[in-house]
Design goal:
Order of helices and strands: HHHHHHHEEHHEEEHHEHHEEHEEHEE
Number of domains: 4
Helix content: 55-70%
Structural class: alpha+beta
Length: about 525
Amino acid sequence: MSVPTIAPQETDAIESFWRSLRYFSVYRLSIALLFLVAAIVFGDTISLGTQDARLFGRVAPVYLLLAIVFLVALLRRPRRFNLQLSVQVAVDIAALTLMMFASGGQKSGIAVLLLVVVAGAALVGQGRMALFYAALASVAMLLEESWRALTLEANPADFVRTGIISIAFFATAIITRLLARRVVANETLARERGRELNDQLRISERIIRDMEDGVLVVDGDGRVRLLNPRAEALLGVQASDGAELATFSRRLADRYRAWSTQSLEMVEMLPQEIGRLLRVRYLPAAESTGHALIYLEDMERVQSQAQQLKLAALGRLTANMAHEIRNPLAAISHAAELLAEEDTDPLHQRLARIIHDNTGRLNRLVTEVLELGRRDRAQPETLRWRAFLSGFLEELTLHDASAGRRVHVGEGDVELRFDRGHLYRVLWNLLGNALRHASVADGAVRLEARAAATANRVELHIIDDGPGVDEVQRNQVFEPFFTTHGAGTGLGLYIARELCEASGAHLELLDDGPGARFQITAEGFVCR
């Protein structure tokens, strides 16, 4: 459905126009009240109504009544701006012209008030209506002078004065309209600039609020005028704007007093009372009484980021080295197999077997290092736990025939978000360790799925009835290259935890049983 387009000046003039029209109405009310009071109180002592006091006495109260009606209508129903203005100006011109005729014509000075009406209408109104108001006032002046010449004695020079006043009407309307147009343009520009400034302020506040560094704006008296939540977190306090800097940090306040005596940018390391080391950057104000900026940066986060970059670079280097090692390692293993086949000497056979076993161990180590390098390529998907586990256990049984009877799967079923390949790799490692340390009894290894304490999270438990993990080794099981198995590489559990984190999950070792219990907490929900 289309909505008809209505001219803005006819429906909803901007607030500044309506405000100006209200002022104009108040002016009209004051003039009408002045005329009525003057006619009642002073009577014949002034020149008002000297020619026709009866006409003046009738027009003055009607003019006052209409002025009140116009003001009330304007305050209650601000609609159709041009129509209201035109009616009001027409009433002004008619009333003032009649009162001017009743007071003896131009000699009464009321013509000056007509000039004010034309100027006010041109200033308040819009478009070409300003010339219409000037023409309306000119016609009223000419009619008044013509009627005076026909009914009363008139001086021909009065027509010349009327013409001059009419020219003044048009000149005033044009000049006032040009000035008003410039004022409206400046007001519109100021309003647009104000909106742009408000948008910029909101964006700046959002950026400052979400910055990872703390920001403080401090005035010359040492009061904090603005701060972001990160600054409160770094300083370990909560305070409102306008508080003394010392309430945030005594050391920072002492350093600020020293910095404020110099107009230079300062960067220092500042230990806090809570034990955190901050990198503080001080930016002085442009003026001596202006506001200074203080940036706070957590050095622990900086060091953590640097460590992450180093680990990422080391990981790429390790992956490249693993690729380079794998090819000669395969050649060595193949050569050892050929030697074992061709040489029947028991000593050489034993040496070839040692070479083959160690190259196999090195190959597993390279494979796990490459697997670790692929942790960031996770593609989580929604997996049904029991459906996934059935296929996984079939393959595990091919590798270890006892897994079919030794692994018991609980009744619970869940759906979880996890990368399929990563979950396969994690379970293969955890169940391999569990089967190696558990007893040979049926159900020695249990798999359970249940809802977690946190909403939209599930838990997977891998439990065995073995001797468990020694108390001394609990804090080391997830460290790289830590192993208690002679043929192991020490990367299994470390890689399993990294793969879990890549899918938004968490792997931990629980201390609540005689055997070992590993728990995987992932995003998901229990199936009903």
